[in-house]
Amino acid sequence: MTDTASDMPMLTGLGRRLNLASDFSKRAFVNEDMALYELFMHYMRAGRAQIDGVTFTGCRIEGPSIMLILPGTTFDNVNFGESRGDIGNMLLRPVRNMAIGAIPVVNCTFVGCEFHALGFTGSENIINELSAIRSVTNV
Fold it and tell me: How far apart are CA 133 and CA 36, in angstroms?
C-alpha cells in the first residue's frame, strides 16, 4: 500500500507507516504488518497446519482471509476492522463441524493490533463472545 503521490508507504490505522514483516519464523511480532495468508503459508511449508503460539503486539493483520480462532487465542485492545457498525458482519458460522479454508490460529496473543479485511470464525462460544462486542464504523 503506497501513497502514489509520494511513493511512500501509507499510514496504518495504528498511526505509523506500514512496516511489512519479512521473517515469518519469529514467535513474536512487534509493530509489523502482514497478510495472514502469508504467515499461514510459512507454517504450511514447514509442515505445520496452524499458526501456533505467536504473539502480535501493535501489528496490522490483513486479509482477505477468514481467521479460525482456536483455544488459547486472546485479543486485548484490538481493532477488529471495518464492520459497518456491526461486528456480526465479520463473523461466519460453519454450517457443520468444520471451517475448511479458514486459517487456524491457536494459542496466539493479539495486543493492540488492527485487522483489515478479515472475517472470523470459531466455536459457538467464540462467535457469541465476538458478537457481544460493540463495534463502531471506522473512518
Answer: 22
45-60 b/e with 16+ CB inside 10 Å = b?
eeeeebbbebbbebbb
Residue 32 and residue 16: Cα distance in Å, rounded? 10
DSSP letter (8 states) at residue 10: P
Identity at 82, one-letter amino acid code: E
Which contacts (CB < 8 Å, 24+ apart) does range 122-126 have? 122/68, 122/69, 122/70, 124/93, 126/69
Residue predicted with more confidence, 94 or 11? 94
In angstroms, the CA 56 to CA 114 distance is: 10
**DSSP state, 42?**
H
DSSP element (H, E) containing 16: none
User: pLDDT tens across 75-124, in order?
Assistant: 999 999 887 777 888 898 888 888 889 999 999 999 999 999 999 999 99
4: left (phi over 0), alpha (psi -120 to 50) or beta: alpha
Pull the grid cell for residue 122.
470459531
